[in-house]
Amino acid sequence: MIKHLKWLSVVTTIGMLFILLGGALVTKTGSEDGCGDSWPLCEGELIPSEFTFEMVIELSHRLVSGVVGIFVVALAILAWKQLGNKVREVKFLAIASVFVLLLQALIGAAAVMWGQSDFVLAAHFGISLISFATIFILMLIIFETDKKLHTESLFIQKKHRIEIVALSIYTLMVVYTGALVRHTESNLVCGDWPFCTNSAPLNFANYSFEQWIQMGHRLAAGILFIWTIVLFIKIIRNYKDSKVMTNGWLITLGLITLQVTFGALIIFTMLNLFVALMHALVISCYFGMLSYFLLLSYRSAYKEKQGLLDETNHNRIS
Question: What is the pTM of this model?
Answer without folding.
Answer: 0.89
